Amino acid sequence: MSEIGIVLSSHVSELAEGVYKLLSETAPKVSITYAGGTDDGDIGSSFDAITQAIEENEADHILSFYDLGSAKMTMEMAIEYSDKTVELFDVSFVEGAYTAASLLSGGADYDRVIEQLKPLIIK
After folding, report:
1. What global pTM score does this model have?
2. Tens digit of pLDDT for each residue in 46-67?
3. What positions carry a catalytic annotation?
4. 122: burial class by Cβ within 10 Å (0-12, 13-18, 19+)?
5. Cystine design at 42: which of 38, 67, 91, 95 (Cβ 3.0–4.6 Å)?
6. CA 69 to chain centre
7. What is the CATH number of the domain that holds 49?
């Protein structure tokens, strides 16, 4: 298992699960967890679900990816409550997460992953 894991957060549960499935095929040895939608199944984000995704991830160092602004804000709050090292990336959701997962799966080190994510940053 990779020393670095990935957490995904989307406003839509099916989108979070779909990206999770894509990444799991690409990076079976990377711990990937996700949260999608609100606690009652609507579109939005859930602090509890994101916190659970962080805590259930097997890695102590996590790269986190989100789809929209309030998922970012909720992720930021959840990160504050975690003892893990969690880094939040302002990159294209699918492309960023996929890039990180495939590089980690291929044995790339942290610095290489960060270098490859830089062109995907959304400003």
Report:
1. 0.96
2. 999 999 999 999 999 999 999 9
3. 11
4. exposed
5. 38
6. 14
7. 3.40.50.510
